[in-house]
Amino acid sequence: MLISSAFDSGNIEIIKADDPSDVRLAIRKDNNSDFYQWFHFRVSGVEDTPCKLTIENAGGAAYAEGWEEYKVCASYDRESWFRIETEYDGTTLSWEIEPEQDSLYFAYFAPFSMERHADMIAEVSDSPLVSTSVLGHTLDGQDLDLVEIGYGPEGRKKVWLIARQHPGESMAEWWMEGAFDYLLDQDNPVATALLEKCHFYIVPNMNPDGSKRGHLRTNAAGANLNREWANPSMDRSPEVYLVREKMAETGVDFHLDVHGDEALPYNFIAGFEGIPSLTEKQMKLLKIYQDLLCIISPDFQQEFGYDVDAPGSADMKKCTDYVAETHGCLAMTLEMPFKDNDDLPDPEFGWSPQRCRHLARACIDTLHHMVDEL
Ligand code: ZN
Hints:
single chain; alpha+beta; Immunoglobulin-like; Aminopeptidase; seven-stranded mixed sheet; 8 helices; 26% helix; binds zinc ion
């Protein structure tokens, strides 16, 4: 039996792997940080062999409540990621399987590799509606890609969509794949109508270095990008610095920052209720958007989510608060589950790349319904 993680977004440390029935593992911390929870590794040499895998340091992960009722993602072909029940005892997380093939992969959520990201950027570039640009380089020297979709910003609403500030939240880039498919389908009347009114600025992966390194929450320097918006720097958080500069140049009329939540088994939106210059119009738009998305997608709900910020308690280090305050627009954080949507559970796959793509379409439909209010 062999275990490896020396690949894109790989993360695992081997404590003991000489007995398939008692494999002991640990998740590696993000570089320069205490955060950890993302894992992704391959087990080989195990066909028809009963295996029990235990992550010994699960209890110390960033969001330990994320392990309760959690089912691990597994795949033989790296395309279809099915779920396996786990046991969490407050300290360790373990699961059992008798693999049907020689090797299989396990991950916290279906991975979205930087190779797939590069393929996606190359593919969308083919559309006459798209122009791509590289905003600059990350600390590891990777490209920070911006995709613009539309006929030009003049006279149109500037719509910003960003994802994966937290690199372990790979569901956010599956969402982006759905958004691109939907917006670039020239037979889609919603896209056609929306592109008359909006110009899209899309950063499908805000954190390429953390993604490749197999981090949960930070970039190469250990910076949590969603705490860098008040004062980003090229030394520590070039990803935020470059996007913030571009936003200042283009202006922002609508902004959605796509994330995943470890603990809550629901899709929900977090707003900006604590910003100093909150307007009635912003609050009205936030309500309209969420009410409409509830109608359009049974995968969205408003009952479960984060506590609403008290007036004046905003944290400008966070993207949504910063953008809502600076640009006076509707800015939202969309959270998807690592586990499943408990309102519409899927025992086999849980919350999946396919469901992420559908939710992206619903979010764009919702924008189409209310774009004239912006
Ligand atoms: Zn996040």
